[in-house]
Amino acid sequence: MDALKAPLIDRASPPVRITLVRERVRAMRGHIDDALTSLAQSNATYPKDAAVVGLLRAELLYLNHESKRALEVLKQEVLPQVNGLDSLDRLVLEENMVDVGLDLWAPEAFKEFYEVVDRRKIAGFEFSDSEALQSAFEALSKGKADKAISTLSSELIRCHRFGCWRASKRVATAYAVACIKAGALQEACYYATLGQADQLAEEIASAIANRRDPNLVRRVVRASISDANLRRHFVTMSKIIAQIHDFLPDDILSEVVNWLLPRCRETSIGVMGPSGMLAAWEALTPIGDRLPAGLALEALDIAIAHPLWLAERPDQNRVLVGRDKLLKAVIHLVHAVAPEHLERITEATLPLAVDRVQNHDYPNVIDLLCNISELGGPVLKAKIAAVLYLPDRPMNRILAQLSDFFEKTRLTSEQLCRLADNVIAETYLQVQRLSSGEKAVELPERIMWMNEPRPSGELVVTIGSGVGSVALVRHREQLDRERIERLATANLAMALERDNAFVNRESQLAQLAELSDQLSDERRIEIFRSLVRVARGEFQPSREEREANSAPVRGHFGNAEDFQGMAIVCLAAIGFSVPALARKLHSILEESLTDSRPKIRRGAYDATRKVPDLKEPGILAVLIGTRDPDNSAAIAAFAALAGRPEWRFTKSLWRLFLLSVRMASQSNDVNLRRHAAIALTGRMAIAQTKLRAEADELLDAFRRDVAYSVRDASRLPNG
Q: Residue 3 has what pLDDT?
């Protein structure tokens, strides 16, 4: 390497280079203020020494989400030194200043990004070796992870020496991928954190889960949270923690929570990029109900005193971003504290449901109050209900769903009829065909809508929340027959509407299935016959299906196989109690249970749950389904068995069931093991005496599972 291209750090004096390593490690381990002070007092008098010290100070500030301070350091401490050095040093500074500018959303940074790229190309220099990276990726594709690691190790050192943050981050991410492939999961976590590779969290978690080794989890987590204390590193590690939450041993929960809580106390969300505070609450959420009572109470106190929680209701053009994250965490945390603390949490929460309401997190607020009501007993529940259901306050659709839960007066007949009329009208307006210049009707439960130009105007499809429909389903016994018929007709029409989004069509069938117990046999037969072709996959494609090759977001709006699966469920709900439909229903279930497509089989397993008196051949088909090669379908089969404990098992069926449970217990799929544990636990009380020992053995294995959710599912009702 010629002198002009010698990395700046190589030209720094040895004492300064030692200082750089020491203070980087100190900052990563949670002592950034001490590290910054030490660097400022390092007496770096030579330009090259002052430049590398300033670059590290700026990098640590940038990694700690303090980009304004980082930019000041780059301009005031590094730029004056670099002006006296060579062109490579200026390129390093420009690259890093662009990163900081982009983080601050500086308008000029976007233009400067391309200008810096052009100057680097003119200079004929790259901070990372693209050929080396390509060689590493090729080695990984051939299963040669060790070779990739060797290649990337040299590249990591190269990028670090040049001091270009973006290049170092890119190579650290590639190194993390190689470590995952090599099974070096502690190193994978470390380099994913350095690379701020949030996208690797799920892959790392999957690799850790497959090892089923609690000691590995302890080593990885303890080492990683020790070094992931700069905010950007913290965010990545928090996302990994959130992914592996189910595998955290109880004895390290306190360590993890004590690492999270200081970030939970922070108030800044940040300008661009993920927030350390929000990431902390997201990581805390899934472990909240497992915490020691003292730590859970500390976290609750932080939440209800947080400025996001206490902020006044914003105007219609603003929302309190992130309050929903706090609410979701508190929903879990309240399960870990003593009941005497719940009244204080209630007092802090009720204003969010009444005075400081936000539409986007209102369901979370009500969910929290429902959880508190169940935990706190009838007196506290009555207190909450008295505030939510004030006589002079209109009852919204969510509260209408919950009136029975809160033991409050149901909607009056007039209110229910008005709600039903509105929901029926809104159902038909899910698809609007507009002439040129005509405006679409905006529905009250709109989540989003899709527009499609048509020769005669425009097609508008609205995706809604369905809250009003659920409220009607819960109060369906109060509805008059005429409105039940109209609602069922609307559900059926929009389920069969070929231009409707699949997610809407699926929702309409789910509601129709719930309404079916209020329909006459004659009407059930009519609806059943209308849906047979759908259940067999013989239906007109929706606009999303026609545009599959040109609509990249199509998958977010449902798909044909899910819709067909729900049609099978709907047929089972409608037809199981109508003798005239029994034979046809049996034929459709038989076809669906042996379909080559996993989603159709899954729909068939779900459908069997609607049949309380399923005969032995049907039960046998579901038992075979518990060994389905598609795990999601096998889970649906186990869920069907758990949901119908009244299905009678012969001795041979018991043996098949226990074999399925044993096979599931050896799977790497945690969700499959959990559902197998739930199904087994639900049948322990009726297990045949001669097979009880084997059932106990399997249940004991689940109780020792590495995943908390599996252990929790294996607890018998009596403890």
A: 42
Q: Which residues of 32-55 are buried (b: 16+ CB within 10 A; e: fewer)?
A: beebbebbeebebeebbbbbbbbb
- The per-residue pLDDT for 718 is 55
CB contact at 8 A, 670 and 246: yes
With residue 603 as reference, give the H or E element that holds it: helix 598-608
- Lookup: tokens for 156: 């990591």
Specify the pLDDT at position 123.
Answer: 78
pLDDT given for residue 261 in this prediction: 97
Angle, helices 47-63 vs 231-243, to 10°: value is: 40
Measured at the CA of 105, the angle between CA 100 and CA 108, to 5 degrees, comes to: 85
Question: Which residues are CB-contacts of 533 (< 8 A; sequence separation ≥ 6)?
Answer: 539
Residue 107: Cβ-neighbour burial (10 angstroms; 0-12, 13-18, 19+): exposed
What single DSSP character describes residue 77? I
As a whole number of angstroms, the distance between CA 14 and CA 272 comes to 37
Kindly give the parts of the chain with pLDDT less than 50.
1-4, 548-555, 719
CA trace torsion 95, 97, 102, 108 (10° rounding): -100
> Residue 503 corresponds to which tokens in the numbers above?
């997610």
Angle at 49 between CA 44 and CA 54, to 5 degrees: 85
pLDDT at residue 44 in the model: 75
Length of the chain, please?
Answer: 719
Identify the DSSP state of 144: -
The rounded distance, in Å, linking the Cα atoms of 593 and 618 is 9
Structure tokens at 378: 């009838």
Token readout for 719 is: 């403890």
Q: What is the pLDDT of residue 121?
A: 80
What would the two tokens of residue 312 be? 């006044």
Q: What is the DSSP string of 613-664?
A: T--HHHHHHHHHHTT-SSHHHHHHHHHHHHH-TTSPP-HHHHHHHHHHHHHH
> What one-character DSSP code corresponds to residue 74?
I
pTM of the model: 0.90
* CB proximity list for 514: less than 8 A, separation 6 or greater: 473, 476, 573
Q: Which strand (E) or helix (H) includes residue 452?
A: strand 446-454
Range list of H helices, 480-581: 481-496, 502-515, 521-535, 543-546, 560-575
Q: 496: which residues sit within 8 A by CB, 6+ positions away? A: 505, 530, 534, 539
Distance CA 560, CA 503 (A): 9
